[in-house]
Design a protein that fits this description.
Blueprint: H1 3-13, E1 26-30, E2 33-36, E3 41-44, H2 47-50, H3 59-69, H4 83-95, E4 102-107, H5 110-125, E5 129-133, H6 142-147, E6 165-168, H7 179-192, E7 199-204, H8 218-231, E8 234-238, E9 262-265, E10 276-281, H9 282-285, H10 301-316, H11 319-338, E11 344-348, E12 354-358, H12 368-380, E13 383-384, E14 386-388, E15 394-397, H13 405-423
Parallel strand pairs: 3-13, 5-6, 5-7, 7-8, 8-9
Antiparallel strand pairs: 1-2, 2-3, 4-10, 9-10, 11-12, 12-15, 14-15
Helix pairs in contact: 3-10, 7-8, 11-13, 12-13
């Protein structure tokens, strides 16, 4: 088989609405390497969009999955429950930041976790309004894309969004948006559009993912916490992309000194198996009536088994420390490239959730064209990169945290060569 042949079949069989960043059709993968159906080998700096933080086919995860598959694959926890579902909830209740009793709900996708967090906030407060941020990404369901602060491609053409959702600016230092301006946006919202006493929740990403890997400043997060406390608003941290060691701590919110009331998670939770969760204050999580939360596949036993293995690997292999080490080395390489690359306008991100932003040196405007050239040149050389950002001018780096040093060094050489090639046009 050839990639081009499968790509043609794909175009004929799959909806155009399912976007594609590459036309590389994978045959197998191991840790940070993937091989396509033609036998070409790539270093994976996407990790399924921060899903396989523990690497492709980690032996402990694969062993846990195999053992669970030999027992049973599905019963629906609401019908025939199983103990390791409860045990994983206990682990997350202990691990998620916040010095208060917590409870957990398991679902299947990050969007579903966000949807259920909104449901919990609304039923617990008796309010309906939700505040989110510009540039945010919270999913493709109707509530998820309503919360998302980016029109193209997520909202365009889908008609009216869900009611009672409001957006305010998110701080972006490189674009001159400060925490003060973001908080002024909230003040203006409360003066002009909505009574804070009608707001159920404020939701934010500690580091915006699709929006461009902009970290939430500490003063913003603390100000949101104070505002929520003042008005009885539920604070929701969307850690779907930031969770499970990616930012150098198990959860990014550990770095802020305050805790969210509800935390959503997915992606890195189960090492490639579809599993998501929301963990929050027990008093909030118990507000819904039995049957109001859950889902047929929520907390699938195979995903639960994989998640236990992922959490063990993160602890045993000290992946939080590893993320900080790799992120530091990546930033050093990017800084050395910046010395000869005026197109680099910013390098940012905690742990191994790092991004580089490109702009035209002459007018400082975001340069999506240059960014795509870097991505394409890297792919030609065997390195998979992802772009993101409202302007499409950011490369985000999401390699498995378990990447061997030799593969990381190889990727850095490819990155340097790719940027140089992109500058030559």
């Amino acid at each position: 088989m050839k990639n081009a042949d499968v790509a043609k079949r794909r175009d004929e069989a799959i909806s155009r609405g399912v976007g594609m960043q590459t036309q590389i059709y994978v045959d197998r993968a191991l840790n940070s390497e993937v091989w396509d159906i033609e036998g070409n080998r790539y270093i994976d700096f996407a990790a399924g969009i921060a899903v396989v933080n523990t690497g492709h086919c980690h032996p402990k995860v694969m062993d846990a999955v195999a053992k669970q598959m030999a027992k049973f694959t599905h019963t629906c926890h609401q019908v025939l429950p199983y103990e390791h579902y409860i045990r994983l909830a206990e682990r997350l209740n202990a691990a998620v930041p916040g010095d208060f009793p917590k409870k957990t709900v398991f679902v299947t996708t990050g969007a579903e976790a966000v949807e259920n967090a909104i449901k919990v906030a609304r039923i617990a407060t008796g309010r309906s309004a939700i505040i989110a941020f510009g540039g945010a990404f919270h999913g493709r369901t109707f509530m998820g894309m309503t919360l998302t602060g980016k029109v193209e491609p997520y909202k365009k053409g889908f008609g009216a969004m869900m009611p009672d959702v409001f957006h305010v600016p998110f701080p972006q230092e490189v674009h001159g948006i400060t925490t003060a301006e973001a908080m002024a946006g909230l003040t203006k919202l409360f003066k002009a559009d909505i009574d804070p006493g009608r707001v159920a929740a404020i939701i934010f990403e500690p580091v915006q993912g699709e929006g461009g890997f902009y970290p939430a400043p500490k003063d913003l997060v603390k100000a949101i916490r104070a505002l929520c406390d003042e008005h009885g608003i539920v604070m929701i941290a969307d850690e779907v992309q930031t969770g499970f060691a990616r930012t150098g701590t198990l959860f990014a919110m550990e770095q802020y000194g305050v805790a969210a009331d509800i935390t959503t998670m997915a992606k890195g939770l189960a090492g490639g198996l579809p599993l998501a969760a929301l963990t929050g204050k027990a008093s909030l999580m118990d507000a819904a009536n039995p049957g109001g939360l859950g889902g047929t596949y929520g907390g699938n036993p195979i995903g639960i088994a994989a998640a236990h293995a992922v959490m063990d690997v993160i602890e045993e292999e000290k992946l939080c420390a590893r993320a900080n080490e790799l992120g530091s080395r990546l930033k050093q390489k990017l800084e050395s490239i910046r010395a000869t690359t005026p197109e680099i306008s910013d390098i940012r991100g905690p742990g191994f959730m790092v991004a580089v932003e490109f702009a035209n040196p002459s007018n400082k405007e975001p340069d999506a064209g240059f960014t795509n050239r870097v991505k394409n040149e890297a792919q030609k050389r065997g390195l998979i990169l992802l772009t993101c950002g409202v302007y499409g001018n950011v490369v985000r780096f999401l390699a498995p945290i378990t990447i061997p040093d030799a593969h990381f060094a190889e990727a850095m050489d490819i990155l340097e060569a790719s940027v140089a090639a992109a500058r030559q046009g």
